[in-house]
Amino acid sequence: MKFSKSRLVFLLKIFSVVFLILISVWFFIKKEKKKPISAFFSTRCLDYKQKDFSRKLNDRIVDYSTAAKLKGIGICKDENELKRRISEGKLVKVNSGNSYVVEKMIFSYPCVTGDSKILLDEIATRFREKSSQKGLNGVRFFITSMTRKKDNVKSLRRYNGNASANSPHLYGNAFDISYKRFIARKWILTNCDKKFLKEALAEVIWQLRAENKCWATYEKVQNCFHVVSR
Length: 230
Fold this sequence. Notes:
Layout: H1 5-31, H2 38-41, H3 61-71, H4 79-87, E1 92-93, E2 100-102, E3 111-112, H5 114-132, E4 140-145, H6 150-156, E5 174-183, H7 191-210, E6 214-219, E7 224-229
Parallel strand pairs: 2-4
Antiparallel strand pairs: 1-3, 4-5, 5-7, 6-7
Helix pairs in contact: 5-7
């Protein structure tokens, strides 16, 4: 059976792609301490023996709003004022990276105060360390909300009755982390994986709360942990 030159070139390209995929998988498994490839596809529900901490995150805005206001920036009336705070260094931009994913935000902007950024990075570091101890490597969480302008809160209250007119998001030192979605170096995250990651994240935040580094609230309706640096 004869093959035309173009067909041979096509077959060689296919072979090259398959070869590169196999090499990538091999390096991936080797990097993950030579786990069997079945581990990355496993849907077996593991018992991580992780205690529940989410319900312990029960701070109320009315109890810390005054302190949060004093710690943060003044309310930004418009986008130009917010950008000026960034240029002055009072707010710092937050970008997606190896530790977390910053979602596209409609009612807020991906920036926080310097202290809040340090807190956010500390949460991510401790969370990844805790997750890796259980064999879930390269875990990232999603940040769904950060600093808001005054009119952002007004707009948000039309859709979210829990949005406070005195929200710490106005002062640049608050951010929301989803407890529903995560990314890890595993093809399939089971419900047990997700439950562990949720409560492991809650425990990390709870520990930092105990260290007087933040206030935190378990927001069931919004499926997030609301965190405020202090």
